[in-house]
Amino acid sequence: MPAEAALSAVLAPPPAFAARAASVGGSPVREILALTERPGIISFAGGLPAPELFDTEGLRAAYDAAFAASARRALQYSTTEGAPELRAAVARRATARGLATDADDVVVTSGSQQALTLVTSALIEPGDVVLVENPTYLAALQCFGLAGARVVPVPCDEEGILPDALAETVARERPKLLYTVPTFQNPTGRTLPGVRRAAVAETAARLGLWLVEDDPYGDLRYEGAEVPWLAAHPGAEDRTALLGSFSKIMAPGLRLGWLRAPAALRRAAVVAKQAADLHTSTVDQLAAAHYLAASDLDAHIATVRAAYRSRRDALLAGLAGALPAGSAWNRPEGGMFVWARLPQDHDATALLKTALTHEVAFVPGSPFFTGPPDPRTLRLTFTTHTPEEIAEGVARLGRALAESGGH
Ligand code: PMP
Predict the structure, then answer these.
(1) Cα torsion angle, 245, 39, 390, 192, sign
(2) Which terminal residue of the chain, N or C, has fewer Cβ atoms less than 10 Å from its own Cβ?
(3) Using omega within 30 degrees of 0 as the cis cutoff, is the peptide bond preceding 216 cis?
(4) Domain final residue, candidates 251, 276, 294
(5) pLDDT tens-place string over residues 312-324
(6) Which ligand 1 atom sits nearest the alpha carbon of residue 47?
(7) Whole domain around residue 224: which residue ranges?
(8) Which of 90, 107, 113, 339 has most ligand 1 atoms within 8 Å of CB, for mutation?
(9) Residues 193-230: pLDDT tens digits?
(10) Is the pTM of this model over 0.90?
(11) Whose CA is nearest to atom 11 of ligand 1?
(12) CATH number for position 326
């Protein structure tokens, strides 16, 4: 018998994967994105910031400054909580937005996605209930699925969570936490009004609930008045994890985000982070801190806002001519997404196939739902094309719809 055959005869297969690994699938949106990356496609699909707007020179100078100040420090291991100057800069920005914050209240994370993972591992045991908006951000659903949570949707309307329905759901389901993206939500672009935020905070305090406020888009406001963070409302102080990100205002490749949370939750998140990655890249943190000290991030954000505002307007201007009568869509005051709903008998997933033959793409809304999806919905990202390309893309979408004839 050959040696390998003899060996395989005595080998036992390795044990099975954890149930959580088998139960949570890859993101269907990522699979769709692979189809939409062909050259020539005008894509409203990906949730990406516009790369031509990155401040590449400013960031290059910030990396140079981090090395010049102390390459040895920039390349060394560092603390789990994050570089003190970056924590202080995050705290100053949060305070300026109306939420008094100390550097010590903040943990720097590897993207805000990691902050969500850390908070989830600190709070959620298998079988615990997590409440979410419906539809909601896909990678949050994956995160809760991997933790073994039972995810329960809270009824929402076009302004987001319905506070009375939230109170009923909390009383019925006894959840550990509510995960919400209250400002320019992904995928709907919706913003929860201030009065509802106050009611959500009050409900959380009265019924005993953690709040996870995920806010990667809040700086991207194109019109209307800023709405204070949920975290800033009475009742939310001792029970809110606020997640912030540099992805949409600096660059997502930096993988820099932050968590602002009450001390006990922060400590638990720090332990989880030690187990996950010890700390976020030192050099990236120091470069971001140098950038914040030497460049005017708010001026950069103003440039990005102006560009995205005209891109949003181009999309909105085109939709009326492209979508069939009986369609509905919203007008987000900021962020990256418009949410649309086709008339009766339309199916956005079927439409995508036809749309791709017309070289235009979007993401069907279905994957973002918990429970039965609404197959007529779609998410349209407006950030990565010029207004002229967007106008052409919407015209192509109109032709795809005409061809698909409603099916
Ligand atoms: N939360 C939401 C709602 C998002 O849309 C995203 C990214 N698109 C994230 C979190 C993750 O962002 P980050 O790059 O900071 O990890």
Answers:
(1) negative
(2) N
(3) no
(4) 294
(5) 999 999 999 999 9
(6) 8
(7) 56-294
(8) 113
(9) 999 999 999 999 999 999 999 999 999 999 999 999 99
(10) yes
(11) 113
(12) 3.90.1150.10
